[in-house]
Amino acid sequence: MSGHAYGSIYPGPIGSVISCGLINSELASLAQASSLCGACREACPIDIDLPGLLSRVRAGKIPETKNKKTKEGQGIPAIIKLGLAGFRLAAANGKAFGLFQRLGGLATHILSPRRSYLPIPAFTGWGYSKDFPRLAVKPFRAKWKEIRQEVEEKPVGHLTPPEAPEKPKESNLSLVEQFTREATALGVKVYQVSETNVKKEIANLLNEKGVENILSDVGGATYITSIPVVLQPDPAVRWGITCAANAIAETGSLLLASGAGETLSASLLPEMHIAVLKTSQIVPTVESAMKLPELKNACSVIATGPSRTADIEMALTIGVHGPGEVHVFLIDD
Question: How far, in Å, CA of 191 to CA of 237, rounded?
Answer without folding.
Answer: 23
